[in-house]
Structure formats: C-alpha cells, structure tokens
Amino acid sequence: MKVLRIVFLFTLGLMLCAAGAAAQTAGYVAGLHPDRRPDAAPRLEETARTPDQLERALHGIEKPAPGNVTSIAATGNWWVPLRQPGMAGPYDLRGWHVAPPVSTPPAAKPSAM
After folding, report:
1. Does residue 44 or residue 57 have the better pLDDT?
2. Is the pLDDT of residue 13 over 70?
3. Cα(first)–Cα(last) distance of the chain, in Å?
4. pTM value?
5. What is the per-residue DSSP string for 56-95?
6. Cα–Cα dist 64/44, whole Å
7. Any idea where the domains of the chain sit in the sequence?
C-alpha cells in the first residue's frame, strides 16, 4: 500500500512537469536564416560620440592613448566599461573618484579698532 502511494505521487509529479513543459511556447530562436537579423528586429543606427563624451571616456588615460583605446571609447551605443567609473579606493587607477580640490576663500584681515 505504501509503495503504491509512492508510485502514484511520483507519477503525478511527472505528469505535472510534463504539463508545464507542454504549456510553454517556443520562442524565436533563429529561424531558417540564423545568419540574418529577423525582419521585425529593430534597426541599429550609427552614432558618433561628441568630443566632450570622448574626453570623459578617456579620463585618466595619458595622451596619446595607447593602442585602440580611442576607438573603443568611440564605439556606438554598446556598453563599454571604459566609459564608466569603476571601483573606488586603491583600485581607482584613472582618478574617477578623486574629488576636485576645494578652494578656500582668503581669510579676512582683522580690522584695527
């Protein structure tokens, strides 16, 4: 009797798993032409970085920038870790997290009374 109950529960669990798998719809994988973008996919547009954006992306890198660092910073709308500040503290090699020096106003001279 106990074995029959275990077999029944096991079978019921398998049937529930199979029902869940059958209910899932297959998403778009690649179609007949996996080397081409789908017709309904959004079109990518070429974007150019302004000189201010490039200067910000190359913050903390000595001029001239080595290798292809400038071309990586100038890429389009891709996420590039070169453009964002990284970790703070001793790992901040490019000085992203260094606060600019605060200028103090000159001290007022005491007036003679």
Report:
1. 57
2. yes
3. 108
4. 0.48
5. HHTTT-PSSPPTTHHHHHT-SSS--GGGS----GGG-TT-
6. 31
7. 51-77
